[in-house]
Design a protein that fits this description.
The protein is mostly helical and about 300 residues long. It has 15 helices and no strands.
């Protein structure tokens, strides 16, 4: 039977090295599944390998800026997982596609997928996934106005994580929670969460959202009235990290935030020079939140 060590290599590449390398590893694994006829054989995680690998790959493709490809991968992953009737495979695929939607700032899709995941968890007692459903639903609730309810669910997700001793994706959920706090003028709490996220990333090797951590910290310090030079330095660290990892979506998000700051202090040429080529490098996904916001900043400087 085909072992999942190549899949593990793809995940490691996504977390610790460049996303281009991760994409190459995922493609190798998918090709191996097809070549060896093991795409529907249970693998190391007691899941069916191909739909779970497609879901993982969708997140790498998303960060590389291949937004249409990422969406197609999620559609394929969800279809194959649901058709398999295998509950653990469905949980894995649904969760990762919900995470893709969360990264794209799409709470409606997160709600829909997380509720589907809750139904499977409750029906089949696969309670490992409960901490993830609570985190997803907490984020989506907070982002759609139910801030206190959402933060309470996020706190419950951390309590479940602690009991289960699982840390997967924890840096990103901490960063996302911090951004919610910033949006509600709770900057000191946000900084504390960002410190936790950085420590968690160092402890677990989960550096895939490190650029986002720098961006959100810059936003928090800006809200606290920090000197512009400090804020710019944090944004620049985020840009450098995203570029090193080939994380083009996070690069665009950080460039948009910094361009907005420069626009507001009258540095329009600097803002355009930074943002226009970054935005122009995207050939798909122009209806997503990140590209819509980037386009709005550019249009506002005409």
């Amino acid at each position: 039977m085909f072992r999942l060590s190549p899949k593990g290599s793809g995940i490691t590449g996504r977390c610790r090295a460049g996303l281009v390398v991760a994409r190459e590893r995922f493609l190798e694994v998918i090709d191996a599944f097809e070549r060896e006829g093991t795409a529907t054989t249970l693998g190391d995680y007691l899941t069916i390998p191909r739909p779970t690998t497609l879901a993982q790959y969708s997140i790498a493709a998303q960060q590389l800026g291949r937004l249409d490809e990422a969406e197609e991968l999620c559609v394929r992953s969800l279809r194959e997982a649901r058709e398999s009737g295998h509950d653990l495979t469905s949980c894995y695929a649904i969760y990762h596609c919900a995470m893709k939607a969360m990264v794209e700032q799409d709470p409606a899709t997160v709600f829909s997928l997380a509720e589907e995941l809750v139904e499977i968890v409750n029906r089949h007692h696969v309670f490992y996934w409960e901490c993830f459903t609570e985190a997803l639903l907490g984020w989506a609730s907070a982002r759609t106005g139910a801030v206190d309810k959402g933060l309470a669910r996020l706190q419950r997700s951390w309590e479940i994580r602690d009991r289960m001793q699982t840390r997967i994706w924890s840096p990103y959920f901490l960063i996302s929670e911090a951004e919610i706090l910033i949006q509600n003028q709770r900057n000191d709490e946000a900084i504390a969460l960002l410190d936790r996220a950085a420590a968690e990333a160092d402890a677990t090797g989960q550096h895939y959202k490190e650029a986002e951590g720098f961006r959100v910290r810059a936003c928090a310090r800006l809200s606290q009235g920090a000197p512009l030079a400090e804020v710019e330095a944090l944004f620049q660290r985020g840009l450098a990290t995203a570029r090193r990892q080939n994380a083009r979506l996070l690069e665009l998000r950080t460039a948009t935030s910094l361009a907005r700051v420069w626009r507001d202090v009258g540095r329009l040429d600097d803002a355009r020079t930074l943002l226009a080529p970054t935005y122009g490098g995207f050939t798909s996904g122009h209806d997503t939140v990140d590209l819509t916001q980037a386009r709005a900043v550019l249009d506002g400087m005409r």
